[in-house]
Amino acid sequence: MSQVALTSRGRKARRPYGGTSRKSSVPWGKPSVYLIATVLIAICIGPVLYIILGGFRSNAQITTDPSGMPNPWVFSNYTEVLTAGTFWQQFGNSVISAVLTTVGCVSLALAASYVIARYNFRGRNAMFSLFAAGLMFPMTVAITPLYILIRSLGLTNTLAGIILPQIGFALPVTVIILVPFLRAIPKEIEEAAMIDGSGRVGFFFRMVLPLSLPGVITTGILAFIGAWNNYMLPLFILSDPAKYTLPLGVQAFASQYSVNTAAVLAFTSLSMLPALLFFSVFERRIVGGLTGAIKG
Amino acid sequence: MTDPTTARAGAITASARAGRPRVGRADWLKRGEIILLAGPAIVMFSGFVIFPVFMAAYYGFFRWKGFGPPTDFIGLQNYVTILTDQLFLSAMQHNAFIVVLSLVMQGPIAIAFALLLNQQIKGRSLIRVLIFVPYVIAEVIVGTGWGLMLQTTGAVNDFLGKIGLESLQADWIADPKIAIWTLMVIISWKYIGFAVILMLAGMQGIPDELYEAAAVDGASYWQIQRSITLPLLGPTIRIWAFLSIIGSLQLFDLVYIIWGQYVADTAGTSTMATYMVREGRLTGNYGYGNAVAVVIFLISLVIALTYQRFVLRRDTEGALTEKPGKDKF
């Protein structure tokens, strides 16, 4: 939802704004700027570090000194989680769910956006409005009927039962981000492709795909993180622990081993790491997708 | 009898005969492509998004436990019940509280930090990555981690003790007087990075010439920020506020994870969404739960449309109802 509002505004905003970074004089000396930035960073990543470091402590350490550092460092919490199998099973489920959601959502949205952006037909605006209106339909509202629908399709306790709705709910944002990308491809390129004997479909694969790649990557990342972090849908659809994705797994593990805080912290950090790694690799894309959209 | 009328009719027939098959085939080909390309997305979207939302509205008219087809039609009675349901009304108050506090807590802080970071300092991109980390982490992890830290014997109280602030130690989660403030702190922690990044992006969109001109005129730093940055940041602030309001109205995951399935209403942190899930899923009042969902939807919709109509209109020309005009984009 966020990205959309930003994108449409961003397109408009592109025209007058061209500024990048600037050197404005600040009344404070630079050390205080760094000091405040450091405090901000400490507040932001402190709890994250607490979770990660807590996994390297023993329960005795956590009980006697809840906010201390690991002393000595204990690795067994992490090795136990990594060798127990539950984590990997849930990791695998999360990977399947997130990858298939991303692929499904982006490919369906790309095809539909191509039609909306470059075909002239009655009902085109209605089609776009349909997806735009979908932004107003939060999963919260639909969750109970969705559960009943999935149940009547016989898909409860299957990954398909969460992947299909995830694709559906990720479509509006994806379509609305992709349409401007596809519309921005100059008509001349399409005409040239036609003259060279490539049909509309050939043009799609040869020209549209490569040219809309930045949009595809940004929307793909958003869909992936959305699916990876999704909690409500798996909570309703999946009741068999063997089918749990990591968010459900973390919660189940935390309540099952509530006395074993160190193990919970280790499990939690391990389930957070993939998202963090993914984020740091694609950080420019995510932040760029959000801020680039608003910057234009 | 070769009068002009016949000749013209003949010409029309001929041109139609010559033209129509070719145009028609291209037309059908185009229609086929449209259906083939856009069809799957529309089917998925209608089936898993539009249809369930309408079903929620439909189920909301029934007293229904979720098994078999709904038969006990009670019209608007669920909605009447909602208006007098103390648990729902207090959940709604919590949502209102969260909406307002998110705006007044996060907005000024985010703008202040964005102003601070919007200058040439070393490691700025690293800072941006790090303050964005909480936003990327799943709600479940945020809830589990903070839940552990905020226990009475947890790290937060221990840390307060270590730095000599024993008087501030509290039962952050279970004390109903404190709980909603605890929730606000966690929400602010999770979403402040997003706000800062947005504000920074908005600031970077402001043309340098304005700052140069102001500097030439001898304006002070604060004058420049007050008369250039803040006004021109207006659209960004308004969009951020919109996203924050809608997110606050839909809040579910964090509360459900930290305060649990049933505790939420006694802990003073229940939200409309946790109450809806509790009724719809845990106590099995599907009909009533769906009516609650519809009320949440209507509240969000009314607020969103009002906000868009009166606040966002000058910025977006309709971010949510945008139609692709010929020369748009």
UniProtKB/TrEMBL annotation, chain A:
It is found in: Cell membrane. SUPFAM superfamilies: MetI-like. It comes from the Bacteria. It is a multi-pass membrane protein. Belongs to the binding-protein-dependent transport system permease family. This is Thiamine ABC transporter ATP-binding protein. PROSITE patterns: ABC_TM1. Keywords: ATP-binding, Cell membrane, Membrane, Nucleotide-binding, Transmembrane, Transmembrane helix, Transport. CDD domains: TM_PBP2 (cd06261). Pfam families: BPD_transp_1. The keyword Transport applies. It comes from Tessaracoccus flavus. The chain crosses the membrane at residues 32-53, 95-116, 128-150, 162-182, 203-228, 262-282. Signal peptide: none annotated. GO terms for molecular function: ATP binding. InterPro entries: MetI-like, MetI-like_sf. One of its GO terms (biological process) is transmembrane transport. One of its GO terms (cellular component) is plasma membrane. The keyword Membrane applies.
